[in-house]
Amino acid sequence: MESSRQEGAQGRQFDPNKLAGVLFDMDGTLTLPHQIDFTKMKERLGIPPHEDVLRTLKERYGDSPDEYARAMQIIDEVEAEGAAELALQPYCRELLAALRRSRPDVKTALVTRNSRKQAAHFASMLECNGASFDAIISRDECETLSMPVKPSPAVCFHLANQWGVSPEDCMFVGDFRDDMLCGKGAGAWTCLIENHKNQEFRELADLSVDSLAALARHLQLPLAAPSSSVHVDMGEGIGGGGVAVDVCVSSGSMKAVAG
Ligand SMILES: [Mg+2]
């Protein structure tokens, strides 16, 4: 059974009518939690469990570009392993599509510390039913823009400025401390997508929900019937190579979204 709270301990009352932009974290927020094996990533990099990966690598290899590149390659490999089996949160596509349909005035962004490649791969998975983002900010965009990654609020200020809206009228939706701090630092509303391991971050959230369907209710968005993505192996092709497509199924329609 879904539960949600209107306000966090330090929360600001959320007003959906004022909403001008929504920034979504990716891992554990729009995807199911724990798809990327951060324990394995840190073990391969020799980084203690409590340390921030990107910050530690910057500090450790700031003067050694070759070492830094080798470490980033390990991150790419572990992220790619997770992406191969990526599973969306229930109602992920429906929520994003409903935002587009019901609130075309609201801008949306994917904000992730993943690579540009993984962020683009994820966005391509959503291309059913009109689900899409106005902006995608991965760690590579942050690097290009000389902008610190989460938990810095820089990305909120950057996007609000780009969209011509106030950061206080935006919401950051995430599942981790860094997401909440990023939003709070800019004065944005914060929404925690709860799982069994992150409830300690509730106190940083204006809104805590346990599903994207519950978030949609707070945003006053009518959701369409859920779609499902089915990975289909098309078997041997003419040239002998197997062909696989992801088929998006919703309300009786099917659409191949990836080859
Ligand atoms: Mg996350």
Please give a structural write-up.
The chain is an alpha/beta fold. It has 3 domains: 13-29 and 88-218, HAD superfamily/HAD-like (Rossmann fold, 3-Layer(aba) Sandwich), CATH 3.40.50; 38-84, no CATH class; 228-258, no CATH class. 35% of the residues lie in helices and 20% in strands. The strands form 2 sheets. Strands 1-7-6-5-2-3-4 form a 7-stranded mixed β-sheet, sandwiched between helices. A 3-stranded antiparallel β-sheet has the order 8-9-10, with no helix packed on it. Mean pLDDT is 82; it is low at 1-9 and 229-259. The structure holds magnesium ion (MG).
Main attributes?
Rossmann fold; seven-stranded mixed sheet; 9 helices; three-stranded antiparallel sheet; binds magnesium ion; globular; 259 residues; alpha/beta; disordered C terminus; 3 domains
How would you summarize what this structure contains?
The protein is α/β, with parallel strands linked by helices and 259 residues long.
